[in-house]
Each structure stands twice: as structure tokens, then as C-alpha cells.
Amino acid sequence: MLGEGSQMGDKCSVKRSVIGRHCRIGSNVKVVNSVIMNHVTIGDGCSIQGSVICSNVHLQERVGLKDCQVGAGFVVTAGCEYKGESLARKEK
């Protein structure tokens, strides 16, 4: 399922997943069995499996996420790989 106003790049694969509104998904991105909420930006070459990505998250290029939860507004830096982790901004 793809939300209103969302854009996908070339050679993207989305299987058994829900993509929210106004998301930008780069090229060569794989999304499997995941939930991606509104206003999420996913860079080129990312792989997301079994994960929940909250609103306003930015995944830079070549990020790998498997069985992760990413909190609202979090930025995942390029080239990082995470398995079974919860990522969120630290509260001040």
C-alpha cells in the first residue's frame, strides 16, 4: 500500500508493506514486511526488513535495517546496518 503524494525511485521493491503519505524513496530500495509512516525519506540503496519507521525519519544512503523500530524524527547515517534495535532521539 502506497500513501498519497509518496514517490519511489527506479528499481524499488516493496513487498507486504505499508508506505505512508508524502514519503520519498530513492533508487534500488528494498522494503519487505515493514510499516513506513508519513514524511519519511529513504536514500538510495537502502534495505528495510520487518521494521517500523515512524514519521519524519531520514534514512541516508545504503542503510540496512532488519527487525528494527525507528522513532520519529531520527536520522540514520549513511552505510549503517542495524538488526533488532530500537533507534530514537535522546530526550533532553
UniProtKB/TrEMBL annotation:
Assembly and interaction partners: Component of the translation initiation factor 2B (eIF2B) complex which is a heterodecamer of two sets of five different subunits: alpha, beta, gamma, delta and epsilon. Subunits alpha, beta and delta comprise a regulatory subcomplex and subunits epsilon and gamma comprise a catalytic subcomplex. Within the complex, the hexameric regulatory complex resides at the center, with the two heterodimeric catalytic subcomplexes bound on opposite sides.
Source organism superkingdom: Eukaryota
Keywords: Cytoplasm, Initiation factor, Protein biosynthesis
Subcellular location, record wording: Cytoplasm, Cytosol
Protein name, UniProt field: EIF2B subunit epsilon/gamma LbH domain-containing protein
GO cellular component terms listed in the entry, alphabetical order: cytosol; eukaryotic translation initiation factor 2B complex
PANTHER family: TRANSLATION INITIATION FACTOR EIF-2B SUBUNIT GAMMA (PTHR45989:SF1)
GO molecular function, one term: guanyl-nucleotide exchange factor activity
An example Gene Ontology biological process: cytoplasmic translational initiation
Residue ranges of domain EIF2B subunit epsilon/gamma LbH in the record: 1-78
Family: Belongs to the eIF-2B gamma/epsilon subunits family.
